[in-house]
Amino acid sequence: MNKFLDKINARIAAKKTFVCIGLDPDLDRLPKQYRADAEPILGFNQYIIDATKDSAACYKPNLAFYEMHGLRGLKALTATLKYIPAEIPVILDAKRGDIGSTSRAYAKAVFEEFGADAVTLAPYMGGDSLAPFLEYQENYSFILCLTSNAGARDFQKPKLYKKVAAKIQEWHSRYGNCGAVAGATHPEDIASIREIIPEAFLLIPGVGAQGGDLEHTVRAAGNKNHSGFIINSSRGIIYADDPAAAAAKLQQEINKLV
Q: What fold, for 3-257?
């Protein structure tokens, strides 16, 4: 049993949504009424969750936006995770990747202490750095393959991302619980990744503020069941004048293409 896959597939079937909402609160961008609150991050996150839960396939808090505030931020993250409805899966965007006991400690923190359903990982240090996460059979790991930032061209393109994709498929064949992060700013390459990784889930950032091509991305990302992907939007939803409308609009735009 994999609780992430059970939850995400149930959400896609029940809500017909492929929208992953990034909970990345920046205090400087929060509305004034939340900045003045005793718990600004938690209050803002609760507002976003209440507004978007009908459109959310999953939520993805980025750990950095909480760690930067020290213990106060980590408490806000813990409270946020408890507030998310139990049926909606959570990806903790941590981008971890280390070896030995360090990796095991990271995995325990993500899956046992925070209770996330899934995590993002960096594969640079190889399979032994990821194994402690993949050994949590009921959880899921999204491994960076082709990222949405401009610096992806420094190392990942033109060919390295395909080698990474092949390793992700190898690990998925062994463990059955990992997929890839593939940026929507490279829609022409997502088709190549899907050829290498035919079934596993793709987590796709870069739509919205980063200007990714939604139409080409969605058409390239689906597996044979017209599923197996989630489109992440953070700033484009949480800082919208109407987050509920922004999330619903993205949901509708994706559904027209599936």
A: TIM Barrel (3.20.20)
Q: What angle do CA 115, 117, 55 make, to 5 degrees?
A: 115
Domains in the chain: boundaries: 3-257
Long-range contacts of 36-40 (CB under 8 A, 24+ apart): 39/76, 39/79
pLDDT along the chain (258 residues), means of 10: 97 98 96 92 98 98 98 98 98 97 98 98 97 98 95 94 98 98 92 97 86 90 95 96 98 96
Active-site amino acid positions:
95
Q: Quickly count: other Cβ atoms within 10 Å of residue 27's Cβ.
A: 14
The side-by-side arrangement of strands in the sheet containing 140-146 is 56-61, 19-23, 229-233, 202-204, 178-182, 140-146, 118-121, 91-96
Nearest to 55 by CA among 253, 241, 206: 253
Distance separating alpha carbons of residues 155 and 145, to the nearest angstrom: 11
| pTM passes above 0.85 | yes
